[in-house]
Specification:
By secondary structure, the chain is mainly α. It has 8 helices and no strands. It folds into 2 domains: 94 residues; 30 residues, no CATH class. Helix content is 60%, strand content 0%. Helix 3 packs across helix 4 and helix 5 packs antiparallel against helix 6.
Length: 157
């Protein structure tokens, strides 16, 4: 903490404090405990702010953007590291169930889109073709179709 930054702050957070809070909020509960910063009060004491400010900061859009940036970066590099493992697991029938977790990580990293995707292309040329046909042409086309299909009744009108 730079000199002059000590003491309790009730209002706005400095950029340095936002960075520090983003780092803390980016940690899982287990990681917070391992760093001996298990709760908002512990990090508030280091930053010289109140625990309630640390909790309120969780909803600050600037802080959320910083945490999201850290998460995106971590997920991106995690996916790079686990891809070879996922490939190996995909080939091993015993581990296929574990691939769901890998797929979730890929989706979170933005490499996969969740949910079904449908590409619907319709090329409909028949209406213009049928509009210009006479009844006799249409009947002939139907007979040819049935004959090609092997239908026994294709000769009957």
């Amino acid at each position: 903490m730079p000199e002059g930054e000590g003491g309790k702050v009730v209002g706005n957070l400095t950029e340095d404090r936002l960075e520090a809070l983003a780092e803390w909020w980016s940690l899982s509960k287990a990681e917070k405990i391992a760093h001996k910063l298990p709760d908002p009060a512990s990090v508030a004491a280091i930053l010289g702010v109140s625990a309630s400010l640390v909790r309120k900061a969780q909803h600050d859009k600037r802080l959320m953007a910083l945490v999201r940036e850290r998460l995106d970066r971590e997920l991106l590099y995690t996916v790079v590291e686990i891809r070879p493992v996922l490939r190996q697991m995909a080939l091993d029938p015993e581990h296929r169930d574990c691939l769901k977790a890998g797929r979730t990580i890929e989706e979170l990293a933005g490499n996969l889109k969740s949910g079904p995707r449908l590409i619907n292309t319709v090329n409909n040329v028949m209406p213009s073709t049928f509009e210009t046909m006479t009844d006799a042409d249409f009947a002939s086309m139907a007979e040819d179709y049935l004959r090609d299909r092997g239908d026994k009744d294709s000769g009957a009108s």
